[in-house]
Amino acid sequence: MPRTRATSWPEARATARRAGTSAASSASSASSASSASSASSASSASSATPAPPPTGPSADPTPTTTPAGTPPGATPLTSPAATPLPAPLPLPLTLGRTLSTPLTALTDLPSFDTSAMDGWAVAGPGPWGVLAEGILAGQGSPEPLGDGEAVRIATGARIPRDTTAVIRSEHGYVDGKGRLHAQREVVPGQDIRPRGQECRAGERLLPSGTLVTPAVLGLAAAAGYDALYVAARPRAEVLVLGDELLTKGLPQDGLIRDALGPMLPPWLRSLGAEVTAVRRLGDDAEALYEALATSTADVLVTTGGTASGPVDHVHPTLRRLGAELLVDGVAVRPGHPMLLARLPGADGARGADGAGRAHGAGVRHLVGLPGNPLAAVSGLLTLAEPLLRGLASRPAPEPYAAPLREDVHGHPHDTRLVPVTLRGEYAVPLRYNGPAMLRGIAVADGLAVVPPGGARRGQELEILDLPWTEPGCLPGELGTGGPDDEVCFT
């Protein structure tokens, strides 16, 4: 497995995305026979009484009846970017995943004519005689109205048959004889939400691949769903390498605190992964080999050990395993020793029909991050993020650019990723941007992609958002010496 020339930064990201998508597609194809069997079983029972969905992510037996809140005759479908899920998940468990089947309306929305306002439902021309009993939301079918009649009605209540319009409470009054008078023109159909105004039964509301947000959960619930078919989360395991790392207390006697062990799991979760373990292996080559050979995670993330020093064991271990290097070094600073490899199937790994890996078929990847914290962040955004998006069928964010407020020094040959904060329309470079520093990224909105040679004030650069931030929501930190003091490219 010879070393190759460093991959360009854009190609490295594209390779990682392709690797994730390819692995997910391979897993989906490998499980097609199981999917067909499940579909046949579910289809034959489609007329049975709906069964409740599973109660959690581990509830994965193939259902023999149609799950509640899914269209009649629905079957467990093959996800476009993962193995087929044996059962849909209850709505609260789908947040942050992607739909593996389109979201189709199970009913008209609204499913009956409803009042859009508190007021009176009226029939025919006024003034109107007001009936004694009003109509509240949640009541059954009200009696039809006759011409000249009105009835008090609440927002969301079912409209009586033969209603002409709804008059808002503030637009009418009842006189001493119990007659309702309108204070402005009454237009037929006003303030009535007609059946099917938002959608009709069978209409596609969202395509597969849509990220399940809180708003998507609300739409699914309104459309009648109790459970959804969603893509499985890629399972990730973090392997922290290095004998010099402390897990608590102050740095001392040549030892330093481990920053990546606490940082990586929540970062990976924010990218859609399920983090199954964080293991501290030190600089033990045999421990690393055993971990890589036996882990059933879809993605293994290592920290450090990717260069060619005396205790950098990642490359020798990958050769020993017979792994395929997809990216071996990237022309980016910081973080150029990062790598991406395709691993052989784990010893004893279980497929999608067991309780093991989400993507089955023995497809595993390793993302080797440099040990320096900001260099590791660069590796996360360059390789881990696009790989995980591909595996989880999560859409890539739309790229955007912002003009620099100040000049940024560049590397002579490589792309440089520089923490920035966004101030109005401008990206402001942050001062603490050395490969071992987290002080800048801790207050950054994203990283600016600086081309070789650097960039000038006013030049527009692509911005990589951090997974938990929105532009301009964090305070920046500039210092007094300018954004490029103490630059280090390692």
Kindly describe this structure.
With 490 residues, the chain is an alpha+beta fold. The chain contains seven helices and 26 strands. The strands form seven sheets. It has a six-stranded mixed β-sheet with strand order 7-4-6-5-9-8, with no helix packed on it. A hairpin with a 4-residue loop joins strand 8 and strand 9. The chain is elongated. The C terminus is likely disordered.
Task: List strands and helices in order, with pairings.
Layout: H1 9-30, H2 32-44, E1 89-90, E2 103-104, E3 114-115, E4 119-122, E5 128-130, E6 149-153, E7 165-168, E8 172-174, E9 179-182, E10 192-193, E11 204-206, H3 214-222, E12 227-228, E13 235-241, E14 245-246, E15 256-257, H4 260-270, E16 274-282, H5 285-294, E17 299-303, H6 314-321, E18 324-328, E19 332-333, E20 339-343, E21 364-369, H7 373-392, E22 401-403, E23 415-423, E24 426-429, E25 446-450, E26 460-465
Parallel strand pairs: 5-6, 13-16, 13-17, 14-15, 17-21, 19-23
Antiparallel strand pairs: 1-12, 2-11, 3-10, 4-6, 4-7, 5-9, 8-9, 18-20, 20-21, 22-26, 23-24, 23-25, 25-26
Helix pairs in contact: 1-7, 5-6
